[in-house]
Design a protein that fits this description.
The protein is of the alpha+beta class and 465 residues long. The protein has helices at 3-7, 68-75, 85-93, 119-131, 137-150, 156-164, 171-179, 193-198, 201-211, 227-236, 291-311, 343-356, 362-379, 383-396, 402-405, 410-418, 436-463, and strands at residues 18-19, 27-30, 36-41, 48-54, 98-103, 108-114, 217-223, 263-268, 274-283, 319-325, 330-339, 426-432. It has three domains: 3-151 and 188-240, 2-Layer Sandwich (Cytochrome Bc1 Complex, Chain A, domain 1); 263-432, Metalloenzyme, LuxS/M16 peptidase-like (Cytochrome Bc1 Complex, Chain A, domain 1, 2-Layer Sandwich), CATH 3.30.830.10; 438-465. Helices cover 43% and strands 17% of the residues.
């Protein structure tokens, strides 16, 4: 049983609505063809948001095929059995709606946000682009160039070789490679020069056939609708699709590599002496029972780090602490940007604060908890945000009620922070290999030497009879 079906185990397995325990009306069903449906009607809603979630993404790729999922996402908006590229966009835009697609590590999500009476055209549009695309060579060449523009152009051979050796990596990319060196977690989903240029139309077609199946897909509808009528409309359309092929699930990331404490340096091009520094430690993925407690712990650390680094010492403008997560992997990262002269002082203070934070202040934790509950409640206000939450909750199993989700006890938060002890931490420094200040200094020295040589030459010339 592959990922998406496995995560839906425990809910209805027939085309009947099952009510789900949630702080708002929520229903789910699994159709006969394997499509998982989530419906969240909202009284008084003036819009409808629909997302088709496909079990695809960067984790199903290799270094040679990286970027395939994202390139295919682009291609699906260019032609369907009913529409050309212009008609694909105008179908939603003429309803006054918006749409897009996003590629993640395990899913590709296609969504549209339309009016309260547009259920049928919304479902037809989603069905056409996801299950009835027409993949063509000329469109592939066009979208390939668009993807290169999206990523900022081609690196070229020389820069590609430099990047392959670690120069210019982002902090998150370097951390992921540090903990999971044999995984696709550290490879940008947008792809690399070599893979993007080499991907062929037959490869994309094979990738599509393997992943874009109705039994490897979920539909999330949120907003103005009657759930019974919505389910009937889904059954009459996407519910009639069939066919399945052999499916190979994503390779799990496995436990993180845990090297001895060290300081890792990432070099990049830059013109200023502003460096990025951080401390990281292994954590759990968003599908793990301890994940929410770790997120609470990282929020607690963010509040404490800001007080220590900025309020008390004025060393930095801001500091961030969070858990970088995938479904099955994650790591804590505390990061900030600062003048290079303060690097050692700030890293030492971050380490000291992490040590001291293992005894949690209950008053600070209560304040952080209230902030997280309030923030989560605000994010439930609009239909689109609620749709994103439902998609995330379905994939990871996180609790939908903010008060329940952020209910980790003081002991659980202390246990999470305690797991990030000094023996598990890695320090990070991301710095410019050469800056304007350094170049100016070198230029100044060179100018002085040049003037000295000129002066000596003039003196010697004057002495010449």
């Amino acid at each position: 049983m592959h990922l998406l079906l496995a995560l839906s185990t425990g809910f209805a397995q027939a085309a009947e609505l099952t009510e789900v325990d949630a702080p708002f009306p929520l229903y789910t069903s699994t159709l006969d063809n394997g499509l998982v449906v989530w419906l969240q009607p909202r009284d008084g809603a003036t819009s409808l948001h629909g997302t088709l979630v496909v079990g695809s993404g960067g984790r199903y790729e290799t270094l040679e095929t990286s970027g395939s999922s994202h390139l295919l996402e682009h291609l699906l908006f260019t032609r369907t059995e009913l529409w050309d590229e212009r008609q694909v966009s105008e179908w939603i835009e003429d309803l006054g709606g918006t749409y897009n697609g996003t590629t993640y590590d395990r899913t590709v999500q296609y969504w549209a946000w339309v009016g309260p009476d547009d259920l049928d055209p919304l479902l037809l549009w989603l069905e056409q682009i996801v299950f009835h695309p027409v993949l063509e060579q000329d469109q592939l060449e066009k979208e390939r160039e668009i993807v290169f523009e999206e990523r900022g152009g081609r690196d070229g051979w020389w820069m590609g070789e430099v990047r392959a050796r670690g120069f210019g990596r982002s902090m998150w990319e370097a951390m992921a490679l540090h903990y999971w060196p044999d995984s696709m977690l550290s490879v940008p989903r947008i792809g690399k020069d070599s893979s993007l240029d080499a991907i062929t139309l037959p490869q994309l077609q094979d990738f599509y056939d393997a992943h874009y199946r109705v039994d490897n897909t979920a539909l999330v509808l949120v907003g103005a609708m009657d759930p019974e009528q919505a389910l009937a409309a889904v059954e009459a359309g996407i519910g009639q699709l069939g066919g399945a092929a052999a499916f190979e699930d994503v390779a799990e990331a496995g436990p993180p590599r845990t090297p001895a404490p060290s300081r890792e340096t990432i070099y990049r091009l830059g013109i200023f002496d502003q460096w990025e520094v951080g401390v990281s430690s292994p954590a759990h993925g968003s599908g793990h029972p301890d994940h929410d407690a770790e997120v609470m712990a990282s929020a607690y650390l963010r509040d404490l780090m800001f007080e220590r680094l900025r309020t008390d010492r004025a060393l930095v403008y801001g500091v961030d602490s969070g858990v970088q997560t995938w479904v099955d992997a994650g790591h804590l990262r505390v990061t900030t940007e600062l003048d290079h002269a303060k690097v050692d002082e700030v890293l030492e203070l971050i380490q000291l604060t992490l040590d001291e934070a293992q005894t949690v202040d209950p008053d600070r934790l209560a304040r952080v908890r209230a902030q997280m509950i309030g923030g989560s409640q605000r994010r439930l206000e609009d239909t689109k945000s609620r749709s994103s939450l439902l998609t995330h909750a379905w994939l990871t199993g996180v609790r939908l009620d903010p008060a329940e989700r952020w209910s980790a006890s003081l002991e659980e938060v202390e246990r999470a922070i305690g797991s990030w002890d000094a023996s598990t931490r890695t320090e990070w420094v991301r710095r410019a290999v050469w800056t304007v200040g350094q170049a100016w200094q070198l230029g100044g020295v060179a100018a002085i030497l040049a003037l000295g040589l000129i002066w000596m030459g003039i003196r010697r010339w004057r002495r010449t009879p």
